[in-house]
Amino acid sequence: MIYVIATTPMKPENKDDFIKGHKVCTVETLKEKGCLSYDGNVSVNNPNQYVVVERWETREDLNAHGRAPHMKVWREYSAQMKTAPTVIEIISDGKVEKL
């Protein structure tokens, strides 16, 4: 099993649109092969930070997710709503990768 934690700093003025857009992305992601869970929430410590916690059956499923058409749409849509790039941590078999 693969766990992913993706943290994105949002521009305060775009927070509501960012969250609405991510909900659309979530609906499509949950339909993907190997997606066990995919949940996004505003951080309890920072109201302008969005945290997505994901679980995938395999690394191949996660890789396919990154290439999914709705992810391309999401990346383009959300690009101007961030104050910095998303930090992605991939956790598997006791190993953590930070992208």
UniProtKB/TrEMBL annotation:
Gene3D superfamilies named in the record: 3.30.70.100
* Keyword Metal-binding recorded: no
Q: Which InterPro entries match?
A: ABM_dom, AI-2_Isomerase_LsrG, Dimeric_a/b-barrel
- UniProt xrefs under PROSITE patterns: ABM (PS51725)
Q: Where does the record place a coiled coil?
A: none
Keywords on record: Monooxygenase, Oxidoreductase
Protein name in the entry: Antibiotic biosynthesis monooxygenase
Organism lineage: Bacteria, Pseudomonadati, Pseudomonadota, Alphaproteobacteria, Hyphomicrobiales
